[in-house]
Amino acid sequence: MPGLLYIQSMVQDLAEAIAAALSVEVEIVDQDLTVVAGSGFYTERIGQKEEMGLLDSDYLYARTLRSGKSFVVTDPISDPEYDPSSREGTTKELAEICSPIIMDNSIIGVIGLVAFSPVQKKILLSKTEAILSFLQHLSRFLAAKVSESEAVERLTVLSNELTAILETIHEGALAINADGVVTHCNTTAEKLLKLNRCEIIGKTLEDFWPGTPALQVLKTGKEYIEKEEIYQTKGRRGMHFIVSVRPISGREKPEGAVISFRDISEARRLIYDLSSTVMDYTFEDIIGESIVIKNVKEQALKVAGGNSTVLITGESGTGKEIFARAIHQASSRHEGPFISVNCGAIPETLLESELFGYEGGAFTGARKEGKSGKFELASDGTIFLDEIGEMPLHLQVKLLHVLQNREVERVGGSKKIPVDVRIIAASNRDLEQMMQHGNFRKDLYFRLSVIPLHIPPLKERREDIPALVERCLAKYAPMLNKVFSGIEQEAMDCLLCYGWPGNVRELENAVEYAVNMATGDKISLPSLPPRVKENSQDQAVKVGAPLKERVREYEKMILQGYLNRYGSSLEGKNEIAEKLEISRATLYRKLSELGLSDKTREE
């Protein structure tokens, strides 16, 4: 250990002062026999080894370091155990008094007062007792200074180590002393608190984090782990943290505490990452080259980059959740969680606590520590509210509050918890009609339908059926260790004729059924589900019909679907013509040819 080297500059000043006061020369060596300070002749030897550095020898300083005793040498030249250099005639010491420097029962050096002239020798030998006493006091003084310096050095090292450790922690971290003053702060804490380090270190915790119970730990000495706290300063939106505080033990009371905290959304994201097994969907996973599905995909891709609320409508099985997941993946929130909630599948009595969470003891059976709701879990990500039309009116009011203020209040709680979440809602019901009957709030509807997206049913995009069948075959065949070269035309015609009330979901089930039932290397008509075969026969397009008839009936089904969706008004027909990328005159002609003109009088 450095020992006297901690205070080398001060030791040198002291050696020179003693030499001037006593008119003798001074030499001070450390526990390794290295000259730390000296006067006169010894100034040139600073940094060199005395007695050749032989700590095991019987030379003067080595003996002093081992024994801890003081020595008086009256005739160095004739003393064989004084110093080998004296016998070589390189030095001309006439007398010396040396004393050990002792700190905490360890000998950390030697002070030597040396005479090079008869006058100096007389001074040393005539005042031996006084000089020995003086050297003992000087030894204690130097030991105290070394101890003090080492303590400061240790504190500095510990401080540097603590700073380094805190910087490696992913969480925000603060260290406070017994007065609640911040002594250390890591970079993550700066980011979470949205303050510069100079605004944190040297300030009391109460100055920038008012009301935190962390200061109570300084009084009680009891740590607390993983507690939720709201950090809010004047003029700033509150931050929701998970906080742990551990006291630094002192003799009678804590000498300080270490506070670690993290954004609760980070913890929720970790939980989500560990528990989520649902694959991520992108727009490339949405199969279809029909005009209608292309239009919807393009529109969805445009809105994905924003943060506006999206309302997706469409029949059951059209893939509304897949679209929601694709929007999430294409957004800036893709690294955050995607939380899906089926509002129609959760009992009404549980839906509120499921969405908004609850405080401990809020109701019988509630966890004592409380529970975060889906909105909290989705913070920094996206929440998908499927079957939003099934939400009861009293919860619609609470959802409206979340949309307006971006904060939730748990069941049984009073705190406002900020949430940064994008909302995508979906429904297979006619929400506008529900509004008119008072079953869905108008203000909530208009808040949700900032960006409306309608997913067309499969019967309006039958041209996508072959590609969907191919994708389903590629999915289910390997599961059953089967290999298929394709699907027979007769079977494909049947699939094209069927009305698909269950849409893409029903098509997937039908192909899975066919894969199980097929006996050859192609999907044939007999392997299709009975309901598909039976209902296909009732369609206008019969299996085996001429191509011209199939095309005619296929066009009729497409146009009828658009009429059902957009209506037969002038505006509706303009919309249909635009979507199908045909002129209005062509549309009128086709409607007349297909016998649909009597159903399309302009309103």
Structure, briefly:
By secondary structure, the chain is an alpha/beta fold.
Write the layout of secondary structure elements.
Elements: H1 8-22, E1 25-30, E2 35-38, H2 60-67, E3 71-73, H3 84-87, E4 95-103, E5 106-115, H4 118-126, H5 128-168, E6 172-177, E7 182-185, H6 187-193, H7 205-208, H8 216-220, E8 224-231, E9 239-248, E10 256-263, H9 264-275, H10 291-304, E11 310-313, H11 320-329, E12 338-342, H12 348-356, H13 374-377, E13 382-386, H14 393-405, E14 407-408, E15 417-418, E16 422-427, H15 431-436, H16 442-448, E17 451-454, H17 465-476, E18 486-487, H18 489-497, H19 503-517, E19 522-523, H20 530-537, H21 547-566, H22 570-580, H23 584-593
Parallel strand pairs: 11-16, 11-17, 12-13, 13-16, 18-19
Antiparallel strand pairs: 1-2, 1-5, 3-4, 4-5, 6-7, 6-10, 8-9, 9-10, 14-15
Helix pairs in contact: 10-11, 14-16, 17-19, 18-20, 21-22
Structure explained in plain terms:
There is one protein chain. The chain is of the alpha/beta class. The chain has 5 domains: 3-151, GAF domain (Beta-Lactamase, 2-Layer Sandwich); 170-269, Beta-Lactamase; 280-454, P-loop containing nucleotide triphosphate hydrolases (Rossmann fold); 458-545, Helicase, Ruva Protein, domain 3; 550-599. It has a 5-stranded antiparallel beta sheet with strand order 2-1-5-4-3, with helices on both faces. A hairpin with a 7-residue loop joins strand 8 (224-231) and strand 9. Helix 10 (291-304) packs across helix 11 (320-329). 33% of the residues are buried.
